[in-house]
UniProtKB/TrEMBL annotation:
Subcellular location, principal: membrane
Alphabetical UniProt keywords: ATP-binding, Cell membrane, Membrane, Nucleotide-binding, Transport
Protein name per the record: ABC transporter domain-containing protein
Species this protein is from: Glycomyces algeriensis
Domain (ABC transporter): residue spans on this chain: 6-256
InterPro entries recorded: AAA+_ATPase (IPR003593), ABC_Ni/Peptide_Import (IPR050388), ABC_transporter-like_ATP-bd (IPR003439), ABC_transporter-like_CS (IPR017871), Oligopep_ABC_C (IPR013563), P-loop_NTPase (IPR027417)
């Protein structure tokens, strides 16, 4: 066992074509400590999703990957697909932006959690898997889980569907959870609830978390280390607090300025008030 759960070195992803290598992730380095939470932040197109797919070994066709990705001391890039499959879902799980596209509309959520669980555990009966599914749904605070387990995805709200996805992930007891824009499709209050849930799960299970988002506000509460990316390049990285209080790169400052702050809004209201009073 090493203290570093995930070590990424020189990770480069490109889509080579006639015009050249078309690099979309350029020599990325970062570490995730065991039980740590890392935020990857950057605007759309900065290479965040390609980074997470590279870790999962799920890059789209035509992508070329170089560099090193060590998970718990094992070089993932050297693993044959068959061996990688036993890491995916089981030890490393991924939560995507749109839970609808990851859930099959024709099966109940319970069936899907059970199938996912049983595909990674041998000799599990349906009854046992069902109990695991209900327990996982309870852990993500889906009320009345024993009844809701038999409902279909469309019977859940967006936030509840994301909870179902997190329950599915949890049932596998992964050591690393990669959440790629898990709250982007949700409204602000629901976003906060899902982030709280991710933080709670991390504290409960000790799983490492990589939280990917275009929104610096989202990573502020949940992560302890932040990697800022732009157009495939690593702009800067450091402890979350330092990134917020003392950003080194103008790009990070720009992202920070885009984060609405409650005191700013109060300030704005005051200004409007004074102007009106004139
Ligand atoms: N299949 C593909 N072929 C060519 N380029 C792609 C492909 N998929 C993604 N890209 C490009 O890779 C870049 C990074 O994409 P992505 O990692 O999805 O960004 P982010 O998640 O930060 O928004 C983008 O410029 C995107 O257009
Ligand atoms: Mg993305």
């Amino acid at each position: 066992m090493t203290d570093t759960l995930l070590q990424v070195r020189g990770l480069t992803v490109g889509f080579p074509n006639a015009n050249g290598p078309n690099t979309v992730v350029n020599s990325l380095d970062f570490d995730l400590a065991r039980g740590g939470a890392l935020g990857i932040v950057g605007e759309s197109g900065s290479g965040k999703s390609m980074t997470s797919l590279a870790i999962m070994g799920l890059l789209p066709k035509g992508a070329e990957r170089t560099g090193s990705i060590a998970f718990d001391g094992t070089e993932l890039t050297a693993l044959p697909e068959r061996a990688m499959r036993s890491y995916r879902g089981d030890r490393i799980a991924m939560i995507f932006q749109d839970p609808l596209s990851s859930l099959n509309p024709y099966y109940t959520v319970g069936t899907q959690i059970m199938e996912a669980y049983r595909s990674h555990r041998t000799g599990v009966t349906r009854r046992q898997a069902r109990a695991v599914a209900i327990e996982a749904m309870e852990r993500v605070h889906i009320g009345d889980a024993a009844r809701r387990v038999d409902h279909y995805p469309h019977q859940f709200s967006g936030g509840m569907r994301q909870r179902v996805m997190i329950a599915m992930t949890l049932s596998m007891e992964p050591e690393l959870i990669i959440a790629d824009e898990p709250t982007t499709a949700l409204d602000v209050t629901v976003q906060a609830q899902i982030l709280d849930l991710l933080a709670e799960i991390r504290a409960d299970t000790g799983a490492g978390l990589v939280l990917i988002t275009h929104d610096l506000a989202v990573v502020s509460e949940v992560t302890d280390h932040i990697v800022v990316m732009r157009d495939g390049d690593l702009v800067e990285q450091g402890p979350a607090e330092r990134i917020f209080t003392d950003p080194q790169a103008p790009y990070t400052r720009m992202l920070l300025d885009a984060v609405p702050r409650i005191d700013d809004e109060i300030g704005l209201l005051r200004t409007m008030h004074t102007e009106e009073g004139r």
